[in-house]
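Lab meeting, item 3. Inverse folding demo.
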């Protein structure tokens, strides 16, 4: 085991911050939901934040979701307060609400999803708490069993709270979960006099052991199943941070080596197995932030004060936390990158009116969720977004997720086929722009995405826009449009409603927008909407009829449309002579408008048996389907 003590770190950081071009940040004060105070606890990779805030009158705290520049009060579920503990990549939030009045009242875990806050219940008892959520919306925590006799770790998935059991005792608690559904936490052993960290994987709870003592506790888990936390030493003579990998618990040590009673703590781990936390220093026996990488524990130092702690690390190895200055009056938030610690207060615009005291989380875009003090020493949550000069590097299949400086979010991802000269790619989001084509409409609120790059590139670009926070009446009808020359062009290649993402391929950058068709067609008898209709092929004609709704209201104003016919099962699946059947609506005998409906007289005799799908198309968008069988 090797340790690196950077006793001159603060001197080096101050010197190089002047001599080099330090990366600066834009800063957004997330505000409150009406009261004086807010606090952030979780940050996702698109810049959304979960935390808690005091409502108007500084009544007890409420959980919040900050998304697209708006802080939403998640309310309570009958009690007087709630708080968030985690957020996933699509903005689902988990945490606790209090069932009564006051913090000592029973807690219940909650999940906020799609604008609705729901209780997760318990394991037969009266209380539960949620501690983490993964990007599949699985939640972990602890819950009481029947008659509140025991408390067990739980995994909540697809609407069901699953009891993970214990390591033999009556208590267990799940603290972290990765995107594979592996869970890390702590459980008492038989007799409840000792407690060990555990890894729950493939339906089995594994005891991770200790470092010779009677206690260990898991705090975080990465994508590969490595676990970090703290464990007591032989005779419980202090506790050290550990890293558990493939069945082995490794003592990360402390800066004081084997000094008796010395302590450290691990807060976070990234997907490369780098760990951050604090360790007691040799010099004065106070905690210093550390970064552990490949067997080396590095002391990140302070800003001249006596203490520091590292709270979070991203997959690029950037670290954030807090460190005291020479006066030791208030800590300052820091970012550690490229071997240097920077005071975040020196990297934000002057005159911000705040003092950042702690960096609490950092995502893979380098955004930092921080706590700060404003006037009258009031605490607010903040979001810092790096101003990247060249975020688009030379190479093939280069992916970039630029951050909108106004909201601190990154709803757009671009993939360049080939970048031949590096540059900066940016996005700005606004509510005004060129009006959509006549058959389409914007969502609510309206959003236009203006993309620019100074990079030189060749080939196609794939642009994907996440529409979370924008409401549409029917997400199945969404299209991605690109403003080219003098008008909008539909460039859609995929729509994923589960991730709320629409993608398209383009050859240039300019304004983009997601539009929804204003029209919706509904199939009418004799074809039923559930696809169960079956007709005899020999009947000659199957009349396929559609009525039309405009912005949700029935209309008899029927614009020109097209029809396409597909065989989905039968002799040969696929398009059936589309050139014959793709006809504009008229008053003819094959596809016509008749009063308040479209009528398609399908000649069935030559089609053969099978299942068929008729699509009606308006403005290049399928606005309705009719499915039926021929026998």
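The presenter then showed the designed sequence:
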């Amino acid at each position: 085991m090797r340790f690196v003590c950077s006793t001159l770190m603060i001197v080096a950081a101050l010197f190089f911050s002047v001599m080099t071009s330090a990366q600066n940040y834009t800063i957004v004060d997330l505000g409150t939901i009406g009261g004086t105070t807010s606090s952030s606890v979780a940050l996702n990779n698109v810049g959304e934040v979960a935390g808690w805030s005091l409502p108007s009158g500084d009544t007890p705290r409420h959980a919040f979701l900050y998304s697209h520049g708006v802080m939403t009060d998640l309310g309570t579920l009958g009690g007087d307060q709630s708080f968030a503990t985690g957020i996933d990549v699509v903005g689902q939030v988990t945490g606790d609400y209090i069932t009564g009045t006051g913090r000592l009242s029973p807690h219940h875990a909650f999940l906020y999803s799609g604008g609705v806050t729901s209780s997760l219940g318990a394991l037969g008892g009266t209380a539960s708490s949620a501690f983490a959520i993964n990007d599949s919306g699985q939640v972990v925590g602890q819950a009481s069993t029947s008659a509140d006799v025991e408390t067990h770790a739980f995994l909540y998935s697809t609407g069901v709270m699953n009891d993970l059991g214990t390591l033999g005792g009556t208590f267990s608690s799940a603290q972290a979960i990765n995107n594979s559904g592996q869970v890390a936490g702590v459980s008492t052993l038989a007799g409840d006099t000792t407690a060990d960290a555990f890894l729950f994987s493939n339906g089995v709870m594994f005891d991770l052991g200790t470092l010779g003592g009677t206690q260990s506790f898991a705090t975080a888990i990465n994508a590969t199943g490595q676990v970090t936390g703290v464990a007591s030493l032989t005779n419980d003579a202090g506790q050290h941070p550990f890293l558990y990998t493939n069945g082995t618990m490794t003592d990360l040590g402390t800066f004081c080596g084997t000094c008796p009673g010395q302590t450290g703590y691990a807060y976070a781990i990234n997907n490369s197995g780098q760990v951050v936390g604090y360790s007691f220093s040799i010099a004065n026996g106070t905690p210093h932030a550390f970064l552990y990488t490949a067997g080396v524990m590095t002391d990140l130092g302070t800003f001249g004060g006596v203490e520091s702690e590292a709270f979070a690390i991203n997959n690029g190895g950037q670290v954030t936390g807090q460190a005291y200055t020479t006066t030791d009056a208030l800590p300052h938030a820091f970012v550690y990158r490229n071997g240097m610690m920077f005071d975040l207060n020196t990297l934000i615009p002057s005159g911000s009116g705040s003092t950042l005291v702690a960096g609490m989380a950092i995502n893979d875009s380098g955004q930092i969720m921080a706590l700060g003090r404003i006037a009258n020493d009031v605490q607010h949550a903040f979001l810092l977004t790096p101003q990247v000069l060249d975020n688009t590097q030379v190479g093939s299949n280069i992916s970039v997720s630029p951050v909108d400086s106004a909201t601190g979010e990154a709803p757009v991802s671009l993939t360049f086929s080939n970048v031949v000269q590096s540059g900066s790619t940016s996005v700005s989001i606004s509510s005004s722009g060129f009006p959509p084509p006549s058959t389409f409409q914007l969502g609510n609120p309206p959003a236009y995405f203006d993309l620019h790059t100074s990079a030189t590139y060749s080939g196609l670009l794939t642009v994907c826009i996440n529409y979370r926070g924008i409401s549409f009446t029917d997400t199945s009808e969404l299209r991605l449009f690109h403003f080219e020359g003098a008008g909008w062009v539909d460039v859609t290649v995929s729509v994923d409603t589960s991730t709320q993402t629409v993608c398209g391929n383009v050859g240039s950058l300019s304004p983009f927008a997601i539009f929804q068709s204003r029209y919706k067609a509904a199939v009418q008898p004799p074809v039923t909407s559930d696809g169960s209709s079956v007709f005899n092929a020999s009947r000659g004609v199957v009349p396929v009829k559609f009525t039309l709704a405009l912005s949700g209201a029935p209309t008899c104003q029927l614009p020109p449309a097209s029809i396409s016919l597909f065989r989905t099962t039968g002799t040969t699946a696929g398009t059936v002579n589309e050139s014959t059947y793709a006809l504009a609506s008229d008053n003819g005998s094959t596809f016509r408008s008749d009063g308040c409906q479209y009528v398609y007289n399908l000649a069935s005799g030559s089609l053969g048996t099978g299942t068929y799908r008729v699509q009606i198309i308006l403005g290049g968008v399928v606005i309705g389907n009719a499915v039926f069988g021929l026998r």
